[in-house]
Amino acid sequence: IAGDCVGNGWRTLLQATRVTKEEAFLPFFVLKGGLFFFILYVAWIYVDSNYDLGPRLVSKNSSLRPYFLQKCLGLRSPFVPTPWALSPHVQTALSAVVCPGTEPRFQREYLELKDGGVVALDWANYEEKTLNDHRSVVIVVSGVVTTGDGVARVCHGAWRRGFRPVVFRQRGHTDVPLTTPRLQSFGDPSDFREALEYIRATNPGSDLTAVSLSTGCGVLISYLGEYGSSTYLTAAVCISPIYCAETLYSSQAIPSLYRWILLQRQKALLLSHVSCLQKVDALDSASALRSGSMVEFEEIVFSKTNGVHTMEDYWEQNEPTREIDEVAVPLLCISSKDDPLVPKESIPTELFLTYPHFFLALTEKGGHCGFFEGFQPESRAERLAFEFLRAAQKLNMAAHANGNGMMV
């Protein structure tokens, strides 16, 4: 009997202890959850008070503005950078190293140009056997410092959203042979024009669009201005464009490390083709390799190989915005105020407020070609780019169905 009493006493004590723990867990859980949401709220207030959650759309108040705002979620939802990548330098570094989960397989085509030069078209595929007729082609124009991972990431994003990406490789770049003693200068769109004509001829009926990154935007913006309504493109997007080439090459506001990296990439390009470029009598390769600034290198190499005598004439022919008033298709530029290569003072916001086809998605943070958000970084700029292109295609189809041009 005594044993039963002791056993019952222990069971009663254990039950009481269990009830006590269960009762204590609820307020502990509430306290922990409340503390979490309080910290989240404080963090949100900090973010909101330090920079605009954007992106902010800068454009003329035309009928296109509300259309793209409605169709592009990336223009309406808040942009909060990856918490551990708030620095513009970290964002810029991520743009070079973040790679997609699935690498594309590139099928290269070499295209001989009218002057005997050669460019390459790298067609990206992700399936063994794919009927690509239903996919509209998007041409990707990379910059001097755009890495292979960056290009692969853009191509992967394009494929996921129903596009067929092809990368335009300039003469002499990325293992493309240099067959003539001339390098494509910063804002010369002539090679791109011939490549686009070939893509259009070999993909009849495809709705062509284009995406460019960094210095590659100089070629695309120049092309849109120079060819106006005969570009063969429905729309275009520039991610971290260089609005003023002369500023990029001469501004002391750009950190010296970035200027050094750009200069070394250009010198490496010269070294890989020095035997071909030696045919240019006016070119002094040794002086170019000893040059200490991008301006000096551009004058010695690119102006000489393109037959331009003065830097004033060179910039007049290569500034991307030189014929900006002729652009006739929707163009979205995605820029950040903390871009280490593009000082915020050089972003021409008045241009976007003047011309109806120009749209600027402006963020406070994002670095150069970064714009990464989420704990597992994903680029908002690249997602927004394809939202914009798809919306422009739908608008173009509706306009043609009605027998009208695109509304402005």
TrEMBL record:
All copies of domain Serine aminopeptidase S33, residue ranges: 133-347
Keyword Transmembrane: yes
GO molecular function, one term: short-chain carboxylesterase activity
Single Gene Ontology BP annotation: lipid metabolic process
Transmembrane helix found in the keyword field: yes
Record keywords: Membrane, Transmembrane, Transmembrane helix
Superkingdom as given in the UniProt entry: Eukaryota
SUPFAM superfamilies the UniProt entry points to: alpha/beta-Hydrolases
Membrane spanning stretches: 24-47
Active site: S214 (charge relay system), D339 (charge relay system), H368 (charge relay system)
Family, as annotated: Belongs to the AB hydrolase superfamily. AB hydrolase 4 family.
Alphabetized PANTHER family for the sequence: ABHYDROLASE DOMAIN-CONTAINING PROTEIN, SERINE AMINOPEPTIDASE S33 DOMAIN-CONTAINING PROTEIN
Protein name (database record): Protein ABHD15-like
Organism: Branchiostoma floridae
Gene: LOC118426195
